[in-house]
Amino acid sequence: MIASLSLTVGLTPESSIHYGQWADPEGAWIGRVRRLCVGTLRSHRQHALEDDAELLASELLTNALQHGAGDLIRFGFFLASGVALIVVTDGSREVPTIAEPDEDSERGRGLRLVHCLSARWGVTADGRTTWCLLRSTADTPKGDGPVGRSSGVED
Q1: Is the pLDDT of residue 40 over 50?
Q2: Cα–Cα distance between 140 and 123 in angstroms, integer?
């Protein structure tokens, strides 16, 4: 699934591919995944993507941990030619949607961050996989994801 998604969004993962899966319900591994993303970007001199990739990987993984179905979460990180793809599969059949939290709410802003910081993002039609695409070029507008259109559902 992750490999086919990378091709769907036009990314050929030539430079770096990271893939893993975890069954730890406490999520202690999320910090390791953030460091993996940042380390990969640094080693490929894609410093402009570091902060956004770290934040968005954390948001997608936390959403999967809190709202996913089952014990297994899969994560993919692809980097090639200044483009990074973050993919999280959690087994949920519910399609994630962008929430409208109260200003005092401590939760509910994750997908809005994904929308605002990524060049593109989406959710597979079955609701199991959420992904986002980051580009290092300064002229790529952020927030071009499909907000308000079936919550970013992709076929």
Answers
A1: yes
A2: 21
Tell me the whole-structure pTM to 2 decimals: 0.77
Q: Which of the residue ranges 71-85, 97-111, 123-137 would you say has the lowest mean pLDDT?
A: 97-111
Instruction: Sheet containing 73-80: give its strands across.
Output: 16-22, 73-80, 83-89, 129-135, 120-124, 153-154
Q: Which residue has the tokens 């899969």?
A: 74
pLDDT at 82: 84
Q: Is there a contact between 92 and 69 (Cβ–Cβ < 8 Å)?
A: yes
CB 58 within 8 A of CB 34: yes
Looking at residue 58, what DSSP letter applies? H
How far apart are the two ends of the chain, measured CA to CA in Å? 12
